[in-house]
Design brief:
365 residues, alpha+beta, 2 domains, 7-stranded mixed β-sheet, 11 helices, 54% helix, rod-shaped
Length: 365
Amino acid sequence: MSIRNNYLKYLNPLELLQTKKVLKSNPNVLKTDKPETESVISLYTYNRENCISQTRLKTDEVNVERFEREKNYWLNLDILNKKSVEVVGNNIGLDALIIEDILSVHQRPKVDEFQNYFTCVLQMLYYNANFHSIESEQVSFVLGKNFLFTFQDDSHRDQFDTVRERLTNPVTKIRQFGSDYLLYALLDIIVDNYFEVLEKLGEQIEKLEEEITRNKADSYTMNRINNLRKELIFFKRNTSPVRELINNIIRSDHVYIQDANNKYFKDINDHVVQIIELTESYRDVIMNIRDLYLNQTNLKLNEVMKFLAIVTTLLAPATVIGGIFGMNFDRIPYLHDQNGFWIATVLMLIVPVLMLFYFRKKGWF
């Protein structure tokens, strides 16, 4: 049964081209929970003097009213269990629309400002080397007066380990500044990882271009070109809106975003612009590679057609001579001559040879 299903999927052209990920973009689809999954909540309490980490917290232990003013808090929730997200969201007074955005699976990067908190949503991207594809994970941020809440869905992959390490060091800026600087640090890591994903795509593009220029392309080359183009479209769709997100943070006059930290967000904006430019360059390279492959394919086809046309032309005299001597008439020159067969055979050989020399003189091949 499983073998039959593996073959049946190729009857669907979307499965063959692997375009589902690109076409799947409905932001209203809520994530469905598995019965055995539970959210994993961790909390970092820090200031200039110390940093305390707590793991495996329960949802009822999360209460903003217990947060002390002289300390900063970073709460990270892994695995988007609907019940857990709703409980935590209600504890910090999140609007129902924000909770729905956190639970939705394909949100466009955006920023929302409210009186008591500041929220933003974007995608973390990973490169799967086994399948040569880009995978995404949505992360949502809720920034308050002295706290930052992050919501992720994957508990096994995480890009924030370097921030956790910096929190343990009392001389880092994260320990010295407020929660809005922590937001910058996390966004900066996400954007910097975009470069790593784009670098992996660049390696695949260079490898494919080298194979084509060395005439090592095979029957799957066009599929690989389409897959790379699809991955670039997916990458661009998830990274281009980040520029608008960062610009909204820079232009924001929200009380929880300090003007002194705008220079750090501007640095992220510069990185996003560079990523967008590189993506456009890679897109142009992919299109050029596709044109090169199609031109090579057409050239090979023309060479084959030229060869077949020459063979057909060279055989035409033999066909004509054989047709003449094969006609049903009694009086044909050399028909009853004892050397008639050899004369016809010599003509069949000499005429194509003369034609061959003529073609070469004309430069037709």
